[in-house]
Amino acid sequence: MLEWPASVQPLFIGGTLLWSGGLKCLGRSARRSAERSALPSLVGEGRALAAYRLTGALELALAAVLLLPPAYAAEAVAAVVLGVGFLGYLTYAKVAAPDSSCGCLSKRRTPVTWRSFARAGLVTAAALLGTQADAWWAGGLGAGTAVLLVAEVAALLALSPEADGLWLLPLRRLRIRMRHPLADRSFEMPLESSLQQLLASPAYRQVSPLLRSGLRETWDEEDTRILCYTAEYEGTAATAVFAVPLRHYLPEEVRVALVDESSESTLLVGV
Prior knowledge:
The chain is of the alpha+beta class. About 55% of the residues lie in helices and about 15% in strands. The chain has helices at about 5, 10-25, 30-35, 40-45, 45-65, 75-95, 115-130, 145-160, 165-180, 190-200, 200-205, and strands at about 215-220, 225-235, 235-245, 255-260, 265-270.
């Protein structure tokens, strides 16, 4: 029953350990990652880097054993022991050094949270399942196991703050773009949004000392909103005409012109 999903667990665990061990042994920021972790508290500051690299070397060695043929049951058992060790280390870090960084899968400072425990639990569970495999993982590859591997990798990334830049941040930006009122062209844009954009623009900062009134008049022309203010330029009464993007928040694209309405001449064209 378990042989089908168990057969490819060494591939998933080996790939994860290859990532983690490679960072610890080959990463340029290994010293900084070791110093930020709970290892200085656990083994002492002088031994932290050595312990960090030794852990990485063990991960790489186990990854090689898991990924290369032949397959032995002891490989998965060793992965279970390593996973339990990770869970124990995370527990120690959370209690003894709560401000420390996990230092697991990237040089980024990532505090120990529930995601760290869930990720270690996922790898340990996969290792436990892998103990049921009786053949090398390459023989078990197929459509079904490929779907399982993709799901496990997706879960690993979702539980890894180090990978947030790959999926979580783009997702948040997409949600903001979709939910932001400027993203919807189906309704009339509120005047307040245009005023906020105007106040943040270089054009407004350029001529604001010349303004002598509040908003006097406004209208829309296609994708531009026109805002008019009374102004004074070198002793001449004028109208400050601002052109503000209507459907997008682009303060740097706001334009302004000072117009003498009595002579219908342009006194100043701003940024």
